[in-house]
Amino acid sequence: MRDLPGVLPWFLPGLAITTVTAVAVAGRVARRLRTENWIAFLLIMSVGGVLAATITPLAGGFRGRPPPPGRCDFGRIGLAPLSHYLQFGETGLNVILFVPLGLAVGLLGRSPATARVLVAVLALPLAIEVIQSLAPMLGRGCQSRDVIDNLLGLGIGLALGVLLSVFRARRTRN
Question: pTM for the complete prediction?
Fold first, then answer.
């Protein structure tokens, strides 16, 4: 974590912009999605955090000659060994990054708007890798394993959000 600004120099500024945006529009998003303000805030912060961590240039991303666009590493197209997820490394961080987003979607009530949000967040990992592939000057690379790990994080967060919603609904009924 200490080296985060060195590796992802645009992450913290991106998170700051996301925070200001979330504070400004969370109420409107909440009304549109028919949810509570804090859930809309979590949703916006989660999307912004994901984009700040994955689309902003890496340190030195604009230096040197970038590789040709349109390349992707398909070295892993399934789950990694459990030990990779339990270590503090790229695999685990790719999962953790998407858990809050899945949680936020899981906390939304069932509605057509929620279904559209769910489709969008399920497409997000693939969209990120396509952007990374087509914009090699960012210093990033398209990797199929990132999509798998991101979807795993979304699934974990979604399951937690749905469970929390059920628990909250039962608590308010009793």
Answer: 0.91
